[in-house]
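Issue: ligand-bound run for flavin-adenine dinucleotide - logging full I/O for the record.

Environment: standard queue, default settings, no custom constraints.

Inputs:
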Amino acid sequence: MSETVLCVGYTEDDGTLARPALQALTSAVAIADATGGTLAVGLVGGRIGEAAPQLAGITGRVLGVEGEAFAQPRAATDAAAAEALARATGATILVSAATPRGHRALPAVAGRLGGVIDTHVTGWSHEGGAVSVHRWYYRQRIETTLSRTVRPWVLLFDAGSADEWRFDGALPEIEHVEVAVDASSLRTRVVGVEAPPSEQQTVRPDAALLFVAGAGWTKKQADGAVHAAEAETIIREFLDRTQASLGSSKSLVDMSGEGQRVLPFLTHMNQVGQTGSTPRHPKGLATCCHGEEPHTVGWRFVTERRAVNLDPNCGWAKGKADVLYVADAFAVMAALNEALAARQG
Ligand SMILES: Cc1cc2nc3c(=O)[nH]c(=O)nc-3n(C[C@H](O)[C@H](O)[C@H](O)COP(=O)(O)OP(=O)(O)OC[C@H]3O[C@@H](n4cnc5c(N)ncnc54)[C@H](O)[C@@H]3O)c2cc1C
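Outputs:
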C-alpha cells in the first residue's frame, strides 16, 4: 500500500530543526520511498525559514505553520498546527520525533483525525506491502514488530533510531498554511527555562561514552575507611576531561536522595536501568557497580561495554560486559585521569 507520509518538525528558537527531527525525517523519507508513496514535510515554529537549507534535496511538498503563537512548545498550538498539516496533505502516516513536545501534542492529533499513534518507535520495515514498526516493551526486554491498518497512523521515532537526514540539493519552497488560534489555545505560556549550570549537567545524551558510577564508590575500602571525597574528585575530573555522560546505579542515587551526600551532581535523572533510563552511547564504562540485571537492562543500546569491579563474580562477568577489569576502580580511574592529563596537557 502506498503511503502519504508527512514528517512534522517543530523548529528550535533559531528556526532550525534539531537532530531528533532530522533523524525522524530520514525515517519518513525512507518509508515514503519503500511504499512508493509521497512525502511531505511540515514545519512548525516561531521561525521556520532557517530550516529550509536542512531540507535541501527533499522531493515533496514542504509546508509551514509559522508565527509567534507557534514559537512556544505548547500542546494546544502544536496540536492545532500538526492537525492542519495532516489535513492539508491527506497524510496516512505522520512521522515526528519522540521529543517531549511530540509526546504532548501528537496523541491529540491522532485522536482528532480518527487515527492511532505509536510512540517510542525505534525502527520500521516494509514487508508484504505493509509498513511495520519496531518498539520495545517492558523496559526494553521485549522487542515487538507491529503493523496497523488504521490510518492516519502517527509514529513518534525515538532519537538515535536513524541517521540524520543528509541535506544536499535544491532548497525547497515553503507553502505557508494559516492556522487560526483562539485565546483559549494560548492560555499555557512558557515563562522561562531553568537549566542547571553546564558543569552540573551530567546527563549528556550525545556523549560518546557513558560512565556509570555504582554504590561501591561509597563503600568501605581495603583500608576499612570510606573515601567519598576522593571518589567525587576522581569522578568529577574524569567527567570534565572526557565530557562523558554520567550514569548511576539505583543504589547510589537512592543514597544521594536519602541525604548521604555522595556526588552532589547526581540525581535520579542519572539512574540507568529497569526503573531508570536506557541511554544510547557507543561505549560504556561501569565502575564500582555490581552489574545486576535490573541495572544492566538499561545498557541495551550501549554498544561496547566495559566494567571495573573488585569482584570477579560480579554481574558484568556473567555476559553483561565485553571486558571486565577485576581491579580497584579508585586506582584504575586515578591512573586513567593521569593518562588523560598527560595527553590533554
Ligand atoms: C524492581 C527493581 C527495579 C530496579 N531498578 C534498578 C535500576 O533501574 N537501576 C539500577 O541500577 N538498579 C535497579 N535496581 C537495583 C539493582 O537490583 C541493584 O540493587 C543495584 O543496581 C545495585 O547497585 P550497585 O551495583 O551500585 O551496588 P552494589 O550491589 O552495592 O555493588 C557495589 C559494587 O561495587 C564493587 N566495588 C566496591 N569497591 C570497589 C572498588 N574499589 N573498585 C571496584 N569495584 C568496587 C563491589 O564489588 C560491588 O560489586 C532495581 C531493583 C528492583 C528490585
